UniProtKB/TrEMBL annotation:
Keywords: Copper, Disulfide bond, Glycoprotein, Membrane, Metal-binding, Signal, Transmembrane, Transmembrane helix. InterPro entries: BlueCu_1_BS, Cupredoxin, Phytocyanin-like, Phytocyanin_dom. Residues 1-23 form the signal peptide. SUPFAM superfamilies: Cupredoxins. One of its GO terms (molecular function) is metal ion binding. The chain crosses the membrane at residues 140-158, 170-189. PROSITE patterns: COPPER_BLUE (PS00196), PHYTOCYANIN (PS51485). This is Phytocyanin domain-containing protein. Residues 25-126 form the Phytocyanin domain. One of its GO terms (cellular component) is plasma membrane.
Length: 205
């Protein structure tokens, strides 16, 4: 039972570490096209449609011509291309972290670019930012599972069972070391016998 619990703990911990290593994704807005005045006003809407944005991800706006990237605060400002309220970045590449669930709005503030379709809406999680508490990272659930499982496993141990457990582990370790030594000695004896045969065969020749 104890070894099974340890195996489960190890498996969940490994999954959590893997998720943590690959948790954050940086999305280049517009893909290969980058941040441009698009040929049609639905270009960025279609680009974002098949993406699953999560807390911890980032958006990277890359352009080579005259553009900016501004995160505006309301949908009304986004719809009407209001350029006075928001976080403005004028140097490419411009990176915006997605720090919580909610809907993010970005526009270009240069000339008529926004009204021509150079704007994008990004939905993170369920798009609801009403909760004031910050969202947890992607791998929070996995680490919570590790903590919970480890706590349950620890609750099943008493000082006596821990001592017995350590004795069993020490016994297994001694057995494995002994088995390894016997195996190595066997290899050495086999090698010595083979060498003797070669020497004897050479003398007979």
């Amino acid at each position: 039972m104890a070894s099974r619990i340890e195996g489960i703990v190890f498996l969940i911990f490994a999954v959590a570490l893997l998720e943590g290593a690959t948790a954050a994704t940086t999305y280049k807005v517009g893909g290969d096209a980058g941040w441009i005045v698009p040929v049609n006003t639905t270009f960025y809407e279609k680009w974002a449609a098949d993406k699953k944005f999560e807390v911890g991800d980032s958006l990277e706006f890359v352009w080579t011509s005259t553009h900016t990237a501004m995160e505006v605060t309301t949908k009304a400002d986004y719809d009407t291309c209001v350029k006075t309220n928001g976080i403005l970045k004028q140097t490419s590449p411009a990176t915006f972290p997605l720090t919580k669930d909610g809907t993010y709005y970005f526009i270009c503030t240069v000339g008529p670019h926004c009204s021509l379709g150079q704007k994008v809406t990004i939905v993170v999680g369920n798009g609801n930012s009403s909760s004031p508490s910050p969202s947890m990272p992607k791998n929070h659930a996995a680490f919570s599972a590790v903590l919970s499982t480890t706590t349950i496993a620890a609750a099943n141990y008493t000082p006596k069972t821990l001592v017995d457990r350590h004795k069993k582990m020490a016994s297994r370790l001694c057995f494995n070391i002994g088995f390894l030594i016997v195996g190595l000695l066997g290899l050495l004896v086999h090698g010595a016998n083979a060498a003797n045969k070669c020497i004897v065969g050479g003398d007979l020749g």
